[in-house]
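Thought: the user wants the 3D structure for the chain below. I'll pass the sequence to the structure tool as-is, report back what it returns, then summarize two notable features.
Action: structure_tool
Action Input:
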Amino acid sequence: MTVDLYDNAQAWESEEDEATLNSETGDSVADAEYKEFRPLATLMDTFNALREQPASAHLSVADVGKTLDVNSLAELLWDETTDVALTNAVWAALVRQVRTGDPGWTVVAAGLAFPALYRSGLMLGRCFPDESRGFGDIEAEMIEGFLTALRTIDLDDPGIANIAGALATKAFNIARRARYRDAGELAVAAEESVPVAPTYPVGHPDLVLARAVRAGVITGEEAEYIGRTRLEERGLEDVAAELGLAKSTLHDRRTAAEARLVEALTKGWI
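Observation:
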């Protein structure tokens, strides 16, 4: 038996949270435009089709001592009482299976990650409520980020205590960077300056950075510098290499941006 997790996402998110997202984005999940572009719904339709034929995919997990079909994987990984070590073993096996190049296993992995992707998408929507792009775009960015995470996560990294959580975090961070860039483009297009009626920052740090970008305090690129090195807690050298910058250049740009950010926060501009 399959379950449409997308339409029953209250298993992971409260109705209050979903209502908050709708009010902040100005959209309703019942809107025709929203229904026309629901990447996570499409993902779950495909995943549920695989669950109707569980024998079509089996995963061998040494820690379990047997092979698991798609439904067994879902029951195991969606059970909050499952031991973290066992969950990690299953996800490690899933990632390795995906890297063999079989697209079916990519769908399985993404479908199993749905709860985390949906939650993260809602959070991202709250952080960037003023954007013209709809929630469907956020879902698409979350999925794209997750697929990148599947390819790049280091399963041998001793610092990763929870593989599923690390995958979801990587997906969120990748999608967030695209939002920073979009927020910067919108700010430039609208020729915005500091808001007349300031809104004091609360909640997730991304909200602060998003508001700062929209207010013209920092650029989308500068928000990305801060996000990658502060929120993602990555080293300046690694981030600078990815961005094609000298470490000193990245440091100086981040320092200047943070100084403007602190001033804006202190003076209540954002």
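Final Answer: Structure generated. The beta strands are 58-61, 66-69. The two ends are 49 Å apart (CA to CA).
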